[in-house]
Design a protein that fits this description.
Strand content: under 5%
Distance between the termini: 145 Å
Number of strands: 0
Shape: rod-shaped
Order of helices and strands: HHHHHH
Largest sheet: none
Structural class: mainly alpha
Mean pLDDT: 73
Number of helices: 6
């Protein structure tokens, strides 16, 4: 014969966890949830700090690239200055020849007919004036080019979505792909995340979703900044590679101009 079940004595406590009023979570569940929310918030802060570091690196990279481009502009000005000096040396050489002819052949009224440089002497002022205009136009063109380069760097650092950066097709394609990824991510930012925090109270679920969206936005901006750094590094490498042979060439041209000036000074002393 089966015995009836023994009644459970009432000891004043229950095996079920106590629950807070107005909340479907027990005390233990609430404690675990708060711990998870704290970890989630710390992750958001970590992505924010990483974004700040990435943006600082981008600012330093853009400043470095702009300074290197200014150095390239200065090298171009030096090279054009050497061009002007070489032209001045040639003009001075022609002037010394003219002075020699004036001193030696002044009595010959028809010497111009036999002198191939006589027409050059008569048009010296016009040639010097035209050369000055050409040099000014060239300097202005180079100034505008370098200003456009600096504007492209600042545009890249500030926006990072301009596919016309520096007129480089490869970089434009890379930026378009990155912009497409950013647009997809941005379109998801405003959508609800039904799987995240499912079954939790509405306030907790919305808080977790909001933190997750902030993390996604920070990670997306970090990716954009890293892509900008990569493009700036390519520009910096190209700028340095173009300046290295220019520096060597300027050194050689400086020696040549020095030798020509030495010869010109000797010729002037003999007049």
């Amino acid at each position: 014969m089966a015995l009836p079940p023994r009644p459970t004595p009432n000891l004043g406590w229950s095996l079920e966890e106590p629950r807070n009023e107005g909340n479907s979570l027990s005390v233990v569940e609430r404690r675990m949830l708060e711990r998870g929310k704290k970890e989630h918030s710390e992750t958001t802060l970590a992505t924010t700090r990483a974004l700040q570091i990435a943006e600082q690196c981008q600012e330093m990279a853009s400043s470095t690239l702009i300074e290197v481009q200014r150095q390239g502009h200065a090298l171009d000005k030096v090279e054009h200055g050497l061009d002007a000096v070489e032209q001045d040396v040639k003009e001075a050489g022609r002037l010394i020849k003219f002075m020699r002819r004036w001193c030696c052949f002044q009595i010959l009224c028809c010497c111009d007919c036999f002198d191939p440089d006589a027409s050059m002497d008569k048009s010296r002022q016009r040639r010097v004036r035209m050369r000055a205009q050409e040099e000014a136009a060239m300097a202005e063109g180079q100034r505008e080019f370098h200003l456009a380069q600096q504007a492209a760097v600042l545009r890249m650092a500030n926006k990072g979505t301009d596919s016309a950066y520096n007129g480089n097709d490869a970089k434009a394609r890379s930026e378009l792909f990155a912009a497409n990824i950013r647009r997809k991510t941005s379109s998801r930012e405003g959508e609800a995340l039904p799987g995240l925090g499912y079954g939790l109270p509405d306030d907790d679920q919305h808080e977790l979703q909001r933190e997750t969206q902030l993390q996604d936005a920070n990670i997306d901006r970090i990716g954009t900044t890293v892509e900008n750094l990569r493009l700036m590094s390519l520009d910096l490498q190209g700028e340095l590679e173009s300046q290295a042979p220019q520096v060597d060439r300027l050194g050689d041209r400086t020696h040549v101009v020095h030798d020509n000036l030495t010869v010109l000074a000797k010729s002037a002393r003999r007049v």
